[in-house]
Amino acid sequence: MKALVERFDEALKEREVPPLVLLAAFNLDFLCIHPFRDGNGRVSRLLLLLQCYHLGLEVGRYISLERLIEQNKERYYETLEQSSQGWHDGKHNPWPYVNYLLSILKMAYREFEDCLGQIKSPRGAKADLIETAVRQFSAEFSLSDLERACPGVSRDMVRRVLRDLQSKGDVECLGRGPGALWRKHKKG
Q1: Backbone angles phi, psi at 64, to 5 degrees
Q2: Phi–psi pair at 183, nearest 5 degrees
Q3: pTM surpassing 0.85?
Q4: In the CATH scheme, what architecture does the domain 2-119 have?
Q5: Beta-carbon neighbour count of residue 43 at 10 Å?
Q6: d(CA 25, CA 27)
């Protein structure tokens, strides 16, 4: 195990093999060494997660790699069997297992991306934010005042919403240019 860890660290420093390939090969080697009577699979998955963090791959914090491996365990055992044949003689083919682990990481990132897509701001959220800010002004306001009240909203978006409100008769522009003041119309 000591030699495995030292070779992994050296290979990372040398940068001749992509880190993700090294990560998967390390995991395969750990499973073939089989250092414990029980729990080698669980420990290998913990090591996988730890090494992912070490390489800056944070997806395991949000998406369970353990769960994805469990959901694809038939393929896990199949590729492990293929890649471990001849391992003790140095005549094995690591690629089935390496490709399997890389596909698990890819699935995790896709799932994470899908989760992020579900929590994005709903359509129209920025327009609602601008309209709410306009309602809260008690007196005249400028485009800059509105931008300060709506951080993260582009000037173009602010202008677009102001034009829409103007066409509905909710606000009126009292001048010209970017420094022009705006005023809400009082609703009767």
Answers
A1: -75, 110
A2: -140, 140
A3: no
A4: Orthogonal Bundle (1.10)
A5: 14
A6: 5
What is 125-184's CATH number? 1.10.10.10
How far is 83 from 150, CA to CA, in rounded Å?
56
User: How far is Cα 136 from Cα 132, in angstroms, rounded to an integer?
Assistant: 6
Q: At what angle do helices 19-33 and 73-84 cross, to 10 degrees?
A: 80
Quote the CA–CA distance of 82 and 95 in Å, as a whole number: 9
Task: Quickly list H helices, the chain.
Answer: 2-14, 19-33, 40-54, 65-71, 73-84, 95-119, 125-136, 143-149, 155-167
Kindly report, residue by residue over 104-148, the tens digit of the pLDDT: 999 999 999 887 766 655 667 788 889 989 988 888 999 888 888
- pLDDT tens digit sequence for 14-70: 999 999 999 999 999 999 999 999 999 999 999 999 999 999 999 999 999 999 999
Contact 47, 30 (CB under 8 A): yes
| 93 pLDDT more than 80 | yes
Ranges of each domain in the chain? 2-119, 125-184
Q: Which two three-digit tokens encode residue 36?
A: 């414990």
The whole-angstrom separation of Cα 173 and Cα 183 is: 7
| CA pair distance 177, 180, nearest whole angstrom | 6
N-to-C CA span, the chain:
80
